[in-house]
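User:
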Amino acid sequence: INIDELSKSRLMIQGFNQGEKRAIGMIRLDMVIGELKLNTLFHVIDAKTSYNILLGRPWTHENDVVPSTLHQCFKFYRR
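Assistant: Predicted structure:
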């Protein structure tokens, strides 16, 4: 994704180490997880992390998803 494809974002993200990072932009992308197909808004940051995306509690609740960190998987209700 090129930076010119991002919309402006004023979001400030607080990391696990209590450090803050301003989002460089946001983008809406189609996302497929198994049979679940969603159009999702992502806030993009410039940081070295051990993960590619974070799907927060609002996203899991809106999409009826139950994450299992132990099993590294999702369970979801098919609509």
